[in-house]
Amino acid sequence: MTRKFLVIRLGSLGDVILSSAPVLNLRLTFPDSSISFLTRERFRPVVEMFDGVDHVITLPDYPSIGEFANLVVTLDDRAFDTIIDLHGNFRSWLIRKMTAANHKFTYPKRRRERFQLVRTHRIPPTWPHTIDLYNKAVSRAGGRVIADWPLLKTDSQSSDAGPSSLVVIAPGAKHPTKQWPLERFAQTAAKIHREHEVHIAWVVTAEDDIKLDLHDYLPASHFTRFIDRPISDLASVIGRASLVLANDSGIAHLSSAVGTPTLALFGPTHPALGFAPRSVYPSVIEVAESCRPCSLHGKKPCWREQRFCLTHISVDDVAARARAVLDQYKPLTKALILDRDGTVMVNRHYLSDPDGVQLEATVLEALTIAQNHGWKIVIVSNQSGVARGMMTVEQVERVNARLLQLLTAQGVRVDGIWYCPHHSTKGVVPEYAIDCRCRKPRHGLVEEAARQLGFSIRRSVVIGDHLDDYLMGRALGARSLIVRTGHGRETEEDLVRRGYGATEVVFPTLLAAVSSVVAEG
Fold first, then answer.
1. Which of 28, 216, 227, 343 is at 20 to 30 A from 100, Cα to Cα?
2. What is the CATH architecture of 335-519?
3. Which residues belong to the active site?
């Protein structure tokens, strides 16, 4: 029976964007389900970019009592069987209570911990991200946690159009108390332009635009102003950029959700509150001040002579962080992200002997074509045999070394092999019997590869023979393909049975898959 979900997140921009991850997890776990998302009308364009939402239901931005009551009646008529409340305020509680459903779940909001953090300013050594808390509600609803970073779909990830040397600078924030001085953003824009010859996209509100004339810092030909532009337009621009520099704001979350490296300046707030943008690259710029965080949302007036939490962040510091990202990340660089066993080499049950390595039939030709077209070649593999005590890390690495040797001998250069030795439930070696973010379909291995090699994940392609390969690609926002080698035929049947469909994502061999990818550009 098709499950009917209602997910509630009314606002604000960043919080709505973060809820894209749990929604995607519902879609990947229950591919034939119906998922409706309730938010405020102004956030409809954001939710329409989610991967997984079938219906967007909106509440007016400032609803009357009658409009609110009418919404509840309408929701009740839709006969949802599961409600997941990712907001947790009085209004969402009222909607949840007044709407019939067999199952209702909320997320752990950490109210006490967050208030204590603001009161004592004692930063714990670790803390959960809000996405992880959202995903706890998904787990309670029977969903599988795969995606743990936000994901929005835009046309810019599938296109090479637009400048690759674009830096977006967004100096605004919901509360003025969270804004790094506007002139410092302008000085940083000028410094970044001089050092990297990048074009600056200056994203501002009309209110901030009249406070500073960027012409005083940059020639007109070196920047473009985007004033009060719709979120969908900004998402497209940001998706083509090499970097976004912003305050702790919704734009920072928008940037990470479209796959662009993000640097967010945190002043009166703190990442320990759970709302830092998630990005492949380290994303937060901050200084240690004993009074941080001073409020939950950063809107409390500062009692000191100046906001040292922001003014102690210098232009040189920010420009240096930007330089590090721009030197590493190449937004138009793509990677083939390949499974190892059954895709690149013939699958042999928990292979620990390098003499057993044998390439799949079309691999050399496929990888040569990809390499000649400028694609990076990345191999990511689950090797739970280490956790199960069936092989050692050293044996895995000897097998990997033999695979690289065979490929190199034929002129194919692999940019790296990353593998996960863990298994949380079937592991018998304590060191490796842990829950981790690197075991596919989780995407920690690909994040590490992208961090080291600087390619764009959203423009890359994942190819494997297991369902977990397909799910990982979906969670990454990359194109996700299956080959019929290895366990591929069983996976194809599984895709169809579960309701994912297989017509456009299954290919007979790696050569066929790569040829299709290269032909499409």
1. 28
2. 3-Layer(aba) Sandwich (3.40)
3. 339, 341
